Amino acid sequence: KRKIFISTLCAFAAVALIVIVVPPMITLNSLRPAIEKSISEQTLIPIKLNGDIHFSLIGGATVVAHDVEIPNARIGSVLFSIPFHSIYNIESAKLNGPVTIYDADITVDKLSPAMFNHNIEIHNSIINFMGRKFKIIRADFTDGKFTGIIRSPNHKYDVEFIGDTFTIKNKNNNLDLTGKIYSDGSVYGNLGLETTNINEWFGFDKP
Predict the structure, then answer these.
(1) What is d(CA 101, CA 99) in angstroms, rounded to the nearest whole number?
(2) Backbone φ and ψ of 182, nearest 5°
(3) How far apart are CA 150 and CA 168, in angstroms?
(4) What's the gap between Cα 202 and its chain centre?
(5) Cβ atoms of residues 42 and 120 within 8 Å
(6) Strand bridging mode 132-142 / 156-162
(7) Is 115 helix (H, G, I), strand (E, B) or coil?
(8) SS3 assignment for 37-82
(9) CA dist., res. 97 & res. 99, Å (int)
(10) Using one digit for the tens of pLDDT, what is the confidence trace for 86-113?
(11) If pLDDT is split at 50, 70 and 90, which confidence band does 21 have?
């Protein structure tokens, strides 16, 4: 019985080793066009995967693509999960859970309502807007709603978009900006701001 137990234990250890060690050593680069097509169709975002594509079987089937390009953005890596039973049919697998983006450099030319067909999470990324750079600490797109924490060189903002309406807040300075984006790209809003140190808040050196 002891020999059977040891043999069984070794078999499980071997399987675990294969699951943990082997997948990161194997790429899915040969499936690149099919994976690009599947992601684009499910997220409604044209995507190009320039780097290696790896997968892991820990906690399910997870795919990680590196050096990703979409309109107006370059992305360090994109992570998404698919059902475990789809591991042998990855090119046609359905996305399971959010698409997670890391280390992106995003350019936004104008404000517009966010329209995605899948949940998207963004971490540790840069957004370029109106000649200024902001850091996205964390952001989520879910069901047409955007919520996130965005930092400028001097301030941190809590940002929320729901459809064509938005709210931007800075708790340290009691900033409260609410408004609406119109179809022509124009924006209407209301601003509330504590004015005690308004020059410092806007970064002005002189009154």
Answers:
(1) 7
(2) -100, 165
(3) 10
(4) 29
(5) no
(6) unpaired
(7) coil
(8) HHHHHHHCCCCEECCCEEEECCCCEEEEEEEEEECCEEEEEEEEEE
(9) 7
(10) 767 776 788 888 889 999 999 887 666 5
(11) very low
Both tokens of 88, joined, read: 């042998």
pLDDT band at 73 (very low <50, low <70, confident <90, very high): very high
Strand bridging mode 165-170 / 132-142: unpaired
DSSP state of 47: -
Burial of 5 (0-12, 13-18, 19+ CB in 10 A): exposed
pLDDT tens digits along 193-207: 666 655 655 555 555
Rg (C-alpha) for the chain, rounded Å, is 22
Which token pair is 143?
A: 């069901």
Q: What type of residue sits at position 83?
A: P
Q: Nearest-CA neighbor of 50 among 21, 71, 20, 74? A: 74
Do the bridges between strand 145-151 and strand 132-142 make them parallel or antiparallel, or are there none, so unpaired? antiparallel
